[in-house]
Amino acid sequence: MKNKKLALRSLASIPLISTLANSMLIPVLPSISRELKISSLQVSMLITVYAVAAILLIPVAGYLSDRYGRKRSLFPA
Questions:
Q1: In the chain, count of helices (H) and strands (E)?
Q2: Staple partner for 19: which of 15, 44, 49, 51, CB 3.0–4.6 Å?
Q3: Are 29 and 43 contacting, i.e. CB atoms less than 8 angstroms apart?
Q4: What is the predicted pLDDT for the residue at 34?
Q5: What is the pTM of this model?
Q6: Mean pLDDT score of the chain, rounded to an integer?
Q7: Cα–Cα dist 48/58, whole Å
Q8: More reliable by pLDDT, 66 or 2
Q9: Using 50, 70 and 90 to split pLDDT, how confident is the model at 50?
Q10: Own/partner pairs for 64-71, CB < 8 Å, 24+ apart?
Q11: What is d(CA 70, CA 74) in angstroms, rounded to the nearest whole number?
Q12: Residues with Cβ < 8 Å from 71, sequence gap 6 or more?
């Protein structure tokens, strides 16, 4: 039972870990700020919005791909 809980927690953490990939955006933040003429707070909100959307939508996309197949679920994207 303990191994099942650990496995479930590990799987549930995948969306969170994958959103940490937004660290790739950090080097381009100054360019984004200059090009869009926005403050550093607004630039950081871009990352936050991206992360929250990914955390919410990745599990839904996974469920849909399991249920209907990857081609059908990813085609609208």
A1: 5, 0
A2: 51
A3: yes
A4: 92
A5: 0.54
A6: 80
A7: 15
A8: 66
A9: confident
A10: none
A11: 6
A12: none
